[in-house]
Structure formats: C-alpha cells, structure tokens
C-alpha cells in the first residue's frame, strides 16, 4: 500500500511526464543548418545566423564573436571568453532569453559552455568533452553543435609571472538539427569538471586535460 509521500512522488512523476511532451510541442521544428566561417583575426570574428522554422518563420538567432569585434561590442555581448556564442530569442534583451545556452537559472556557476579560450583548444584540451573544440547542446527540440578548427595562436607573451597566448584565427562550424529528444528549455550543465590550470598561479596558462573528470553527480546529462 502506497503511503502519502509515495503517492505524491507518483503524482509528480506523472505530471513531469505529461509536461515534457507539452513543452516539446510548444517549441518549433527548425530547418537544419550547417555553416562554416573562417576568421583570420579577432577583429573579424563575428557571425549572426537566423534559425528558421520549417514554415520559414524566425525562431532563434545564433551569434558568435570575439570581444575585439566592434559590432559585438556595440551589441553589448557579455564576454567571459576569447570567442563566445549565444543563442537568443528574437528581440530578447534580458536574461535568460538573450542566452539560452546556459542552464537558465541565472545563478553564479551557470556559465555558458559556448565560449572558447586559447588554452581549451591547445594540446590534449582540444578533444576534451564539453570544454574542447566541439560543444554540443540539446534544448528546445534542437541539437546544436559548435566546432572550432584550424586554430592559430598568437606568440606567447609574459605578463608579470603569467605566460599567456590568445586565439589569432580559427574556423567555426555551426550545425543545427531537429531533435525531438531535446526536451530541456535551456542547455544542460556539463557532466565534467572544468579543467584546472597546470600551474595554479597561471589561470590563463596551460590546462590539465589529460584525464577528463566527471562531476560527482552527472544529473545534467546532455
């Protein structure tokens, strides 16, 4: 015989199962896309892609840019990386609708996984899941893949005790597909711990990416 608490758990589970198809039906089916952009220098790094529904309506806008790009600065793109992408609803100016590639909580630690730094694209880090050259997001009936390749770095410079490089140029491929299994409203957080600096006093230096570390709880499975 079910107790009151068990009945409540069953009711909540049923509500969740009913809610998922309802949410999925509320998100439009997008037209697939596959575009490649070549950037020779940070000042040129800006792309804006209109994502359309199968009926031709504007559903989302994907933007990627470097903070050194004048257009991106004018549009108040909030950067935490050398090259960063955001998926937005048309006309959105405030969170969370102006960046759907976070978990949507707005809390500290809900940073987007759609940003790239030079040390994430170097050596072993290039193939690191979620923090390497390829980032995959599942949300709103969409599977979005952002891939960096042909990465060129500036020569190493020394600022105080810190040895630093930056992204000089790269190729970005963005792909989007209809994915009815992508039932989250916002992108899930990574299942992996963020790679730590090889030298603790040089956070902008090389990272330890030899062995990716799963988080103790990997509930945010993508």
Helix content: 10-25%
List how many beta strands DSSP finds: 10
Helix count? 2
Listing every helix as H and every strand as E from the N terminus to the C terminus, the arrangement reads HEEEHEEEEEEE
C-alpha Rg, in Å?
Answer: 19 Å
| Strand line-up of the largest beta sheet | 1-10-7-6
* Structural class based on helices, strands and sheet pairing: alpha+beta
Determine the oligomeric state from the structure.
single chain
Shape: globular
Low-confidence stretches: 8-19
**Mean pLDDT over the residues:** 86
Strand residue content: 25-35%
C-alpha termini separation: 36 Å
- Major sheet size, sense and barrel closure: 4 strands, antiparallel
Task: Give a summary of the structure in a few sentences.
With 222 residues, this protein is of the alpha+beta class. It is 13% helix and 30% strand.
Description:
- This protein has a domain at 30-178.
- The two termini are 36 Å apart.
- It has two helices and ten strands; from the N terminus they run αβββαβββββββ.
- Strands 1-10-7-6 form a four-stranded antiparallel sheet, with no helix packed on it. Strands 2-3-4-5 form a four-stranded antiparallel sheet, with no helix packed on it. A two-stranded antiparallel ribbon has the order 8-9.
- The protein has 222 residues and is an alpha+beta fold.
- A hairpin with a 2-residue loop joins strand 6 and strand 7.
- The model is unreliable at 8-19 (pLDDT under 50).
